[in-house]
Amino acid sequence: MIDGALTLLTPGPAGTSERVRNALLRGDLCHREPEFADLLERIRVALPRCLNLGGTHETVLVTGSGTAAMEMALIGSVRRGRSALVVNNGVYGERLAKIAGVHGITCHEVRSEWTRPVDPAAVRAALAEHDDIDAVACVHHETTTGLINPIEEIGAATASAGEALFVVDAISGTGIEEPDLARVPADVICGTANKGLHGVPGVSFVLLGDRAVERVAEVPSRSLYLDAAPHLASQRRGEVAFTPAVQACYALDAAIAEYEEAGGFAARTRLYRERAALVRDQFDRLGLPILVAEPFRSSSVTMLRLPGGVSYRALHDELKTRGYVVYAGQGHLSGEYFRICTMGEIPRRRLKELERSLADAIAAVTR
Ligand SMILES: Cc1ncc(COP(=O)(O)O)c(C=O)c1O
Question: Residues where N6-(pyridoxal phosphate)lysine occurs (predicted)?
Fold first, then answer.
């Protein structure tokens, strides 16, 4: 089966529309030309608008995957001699802590089981215990398990703690998962083009609130490529510091236009909730238990227990012959669980047909 005919049920890269794919062919463009400055400005203004952030945040566009945005966000938020507090209940919380470690930033952690959101009271207690915290970093949607963390409450706890910035990795939640970021007191928000916004991989972004704009200017540089302050300064002038992924920017521009024309955050979250209901009814009928309990589930990632005696690889390969690509579990859960994600452009017909293909694939691998 050729790749283009496959339905991706993965948490990125997410499937794209024909309009987004065609945008990649818009033609060659040098980033030093005024046409690129226009494109950059359009994207920088549109991203906070898409996320209902009004005029509160300013965009730094990053050429790189979501991890580049996480790294830029965290290292730009913590001053020398100060520390970070990472909320850790999955692979991406762990990654935030690793980023701190790589850069020699002292990192305190508040952990919970991977199937439970972190308790905001534990974050409040950690903030009271350590008076040197410059950034509380938390993953909005833990893609590891499909769990939504209580970022409104953790943000409120952070806001009441003085100088700490609230840094949100919203990479797999951007534009598709509640809570609406407009309700979250987030100083720094990381996102990417190729998940809920349905762009292509290659560009990500960091949105900075006022306090964060001041902070990144104050923090001494820890990286040549991922230092937010010079990127912000040059992007304000319509310039980019390094060669950007121009075609991925074209695609993001088209994806943003589609997102807004379809009704923005309200419409896309509704679409994702409808998809989740459709496929989760199927999982129920097929007897596939979901790891994360309601009300903590996201609408785009479902972590399912593998049927007894079935290996992920065998099930994956059977489903692929039927035109679906599913995703492995991560970390200590990978032997027993796998993920089906309803992220990106997916024809509804293909989601309706999933039940039959899953049933057939499970029968084929248990025969
Ligand atoms: C919540 C979250 N944060 C960060 C990342 C890292 O993004 P990337 O793989 O694009 O570097 C991912 C990727 O799936 C993610 O889901």
Answer: 195
